Amino acid sequence: MKRAVLKLKWGGLRSLLPSISTPSAFTQLFLPRPKPSQITLESLQRDSSLLTSFSPLLHSLPFSTTPLPNLHLDGVIEDGESSDGWEEEDEGVEPQIGDGGDGGGVVLGDVPWGERTLSVAREVLLQFGDDMDLYAFKTSPRGYIYVRLDKISNKYGCPSMDEIENFSSLYKKRLEEIGEQGEISEDLAVEVSSPGAERILKVPDELDRFKEMPMRVCYVEGEPASKNKEKDGVFMVESVETESEHCVWKLADVRENRDAASKGRLLSRKQKDWRLRLPFGMLRKVTLYIEL
Q1: What is the DSSP letter of 254?
Q2: Rounded Cα gap, residues 155 and 157, in angstroms
Q3: Higher model confidence: residue 258 or residue 280?
Q4: DSSP 237
Q5: If 0-12 CB within 10 Å is exposed, 13-18 middle and 19+ buried, where does residue 212 land?
Q6: Cα–Cα distances in Å, from 163 out to 53, 95, 201, 209?
Q7: Per residue in 21-53, pLDDT tens?
Q8: CA distances from 27 to 2, 8, 70 (A)
Q9: What whole-number distance in Å separates Cα of residue 233 and Cα of residue 67?
Q10: Model confidence at 231, in pLDDT bands (50, 70, 90)?
Q11: Is the peptide bond before 67 cis (omega within 30 degrees of 0)?
Q12: Are 142 and 155 in contact (CB under 8 A)?
């Protein structure tokens, strides 16, 4: 087994800050939002929540205005580990539904050990009860396994760092066991992560689950859909009509939908009364929306 990596995307980090008390609970913490050259200890100190959560790590490093010495393109590396040799997913590629990454789904990449490693992941998940599910699973020909866990009871679907670490440990141990029996290669690497707070939602299955949260909705109107320009907006689910395969949306009360000249006022009465009814087939992509 090469090594296991615990990965929490920026959106997931924001939702889990209160539960993170020490950097020793994970191997890697990825911060994809800022560029590495722009991140310094001073910039981290300016975010009190990050400083509180990662104070053991920050206090162990010299304070300066230079970029963090162990901060690579992918994030903060604990214990001086290098990310060299680790195959990273393309962060610049827009997630697509069913891509095995942040778009969810299963992609086995035609590797002979894909089905077996997937079945083992599902076996391990049984130990976590009904509150944990597999959001995405992907393998690569180079021997990498990417697992994204979905916690049903969490507002964003993000497991805690302890849960991610526990799954990673159990999964790695089980893979080593079947590797020793010759069922799969012993030279596999595992990355376990949360889906990220701005996850792509399954339509219509997850619309009701996240109906209390604003969503970025990409859609088309009219017939035929292929000849209409794609639109998008930040909405909330009003209702899901399963039998007719339609959903009704209303404007989310977020900064993007407010009048820029209103100086922080809430939505107008006209905006509050606005509704959009769309068939499921007209929805191109729906993701959770996080207002920064």
Answers
A1: S
A2: 6
A3: 280
A4: E
A5: exposed
A6: 17, 25, 22, 21
A7: 333 333 333 333 333 334 444 444 444 343 333
A8: 13, 11, 13
A9: 36
A10: very high
A11: no
A12: no
The three-class DSSP label of residue 170 is helix
Q: What ranges do the domains of the chain cover?
A: 4-193, 215-288
The rounded distance, in Å, linking the Cα atoms of 219 and 283 is: 4
Cβ-Cβ contacts under 8 Å for 199 (sequence gap 6 or more): 11, 102, 104, 135, 156, 157, 287, 288
Burial of 3 (0-12, 13-18, 19+ CB in 10 A): middle
Nearby residues of 266 by Cβ (< 8 Å), 6 or more positions away: 253, 258
List strands edge to edge, sheet with 4-7.
Answer: 4-7, 189-193, 144-151, 132-140, 105-107
Q: Please say if the pLDDT value at position 227 is more than 70.
A: no
Strand 246-251 relative to strand 144-151, pairing: unpaired
Distance of alpha carbon 9 from alpha carbon 157, whole angstroms:
12
- Say how far residue 285 (Cα) sits from the centre of its chain: 15
CB neighbours of 140 closer than 8 A, spacing ≥ 6? 87, 109, 111, 146
Q: 279 is written with which tokens?
A: 């068939």
Q: pLDDT category, 102, cuts 50, 70, 90?
A: confident
Using the predicted structure, report yes or no on whether residue 100 has a pLDDT greater than 90. yes
